[in-house]
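Supplementary Note 3. Input sequence used for the single-chain structure prediction.
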Amino acid sequence: MPISETKKAYKSEISEIKSKEIKEIPSDVLEFIGSKVADHLNNITEPALAKYIESVGPEYKNKKIAKKEKEREVYKAKDEARQRANTRKEELNSKYSPKKSGNHIW
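The predicted structure, written as discrete structure tokens, is reproduced below.
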């Protein structure tokens, strides 16, 4: 099936646009953008916005992850202690519980 002239023109236009796209941003441009963003973030005076920006930052997330890991370790230790206590309780109950046979306790 032949391709129409409009489709050919569209495809050539798209390929030209893709060839003109910037593949990698130069380091000086990245540095300039980073400095502008840093200046803007450092000049924020509204406390609610500053608190939000801090909560989105990587340091806050790392602290949050570390806190969750600690909580997980504590919970795991408590769970192991509970399991040991339950095992010991079952052992003692089976050892010292009265044995029943019909209506008699032996």
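The chain is about 75% helix and 5% strand. The chain has a mean pLDDT of 86.
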